[in-house]
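User: Second chain of the day. Same drill as before.
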Amino acid sequence: MEEKNNEKTIRAWAMFDWANSAYNLVITTTVFPAYYVAITTNADNGNRVNFFGHSFINTALTDYALAAAYLVMVLLLPILSAIADYRGNKKIFMQFFTILGSIACCCLFFFDASRIEAGVICFALAAIGYSGGFVFYNSYLPEIATLDMQDKVSAKGFTYGYIGSVLLQLICFVFILMPDKFGMTKGSASQLSFLLVGVWWIGFALIPFSILPKGSPNAQNHHTNIIKGGFVELGNVWVKIKGMPLLKRFLPAFFFYSMGVQTVMLVATGFAAKVLGMPTEDLIKIILIIQIVAIAGATLMSRLSDKYGNVRVLIFVVFIWIGICIAAYYTQTSTHFYIVAVFVGLVMGGIQSLSRSTYSKFLPQNIPDTASFFSFYDVTEKLAIVGGLFSFGFIEELTGSMRNSTLVLGVFFIIGLLLLFSLLRTERKVQKNAEFSAL
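Assistant: Same format as last time:
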């Protein structure tokens, strides 16, 4: 096993976040949602689109497409993680999903109003590539960092991701703001952005691929068929987690607040474009503000967790998220949305980074099958995304308003908050028992 806290390995690991966060920013958060709403809104059909003969509200269709993509990953990840654990080749799976995602982004270069089906499919495939690579990326954390360093290393990954994605976003911003200078329309500038994401993604991912260890085989723990064994392993992980009081309390809380966090991140731009009528230029400015604030937010939450503990900081952050959902419901102007966006940025990076490092810290240290444990973590998160996105899209179609959908997300955060308070009580009991045993 490679030496932990190796600075070169940690930087290489963080560069994977630098590489693929460009997808998360440009494709799911800024340029693609605005472009998609623009090309699918017209005088004849309003905001409805046809997808293989079925009519959907345009933004609800992409919510469903993302939910379907993450549901596919829920079914695939147990199998793939078991294979990676068995053969010790998780880096190969990172490479496969990175290639899939980057090619799908490049194909979006050809997406226009006449290719709705192909565009939505590529959009979903890019999400599969992003989420598939991330589970194996996350599973490296306990392998490359000691327990006392995992909060800082996790925050470093997110910080690299925010910086890298902002740099590419600025490049795309130049083309979208001044398309005439480059002989393009605003639409073709958006399409070029999708191509740049694909190239950026695969290009910078070569750095971690050349440095990260491939993983250690753990064949002796597998006595069943690999395909079946993935789900058996997931069940075994759950059995182990039930004997870990902190993880058993943390995961339900993580599930519910992730339903809110991930959905807000994926639908915020569509909300601003559709409900507030904000132009692409303003949306990109807002998302850049969010990303810059998020860099500071991830670092701030890491430092606060050192002083107050991860669970207390998570409770504080979820309180803010509840306020964000209520504020979004009442948002009427661009200025209001800018204010909400600043608060989103403050807590967005912090809650993701802290969630990952909290899970890692609650795991038994030096376990050989980190891919299986992080597969469970990612399956939990992906199920949360499926539930959150489906609920958001369904409420919009049912009521005709995205505002009502934001209130549903607020309910998810409230449930997560209550479960975090339960986790805090359990953590205190565990600490008291540990102190008593040490006497």
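The CA atoms of residues 431 and 437 lie 10 Å apart.

User: Great, on to the next one.
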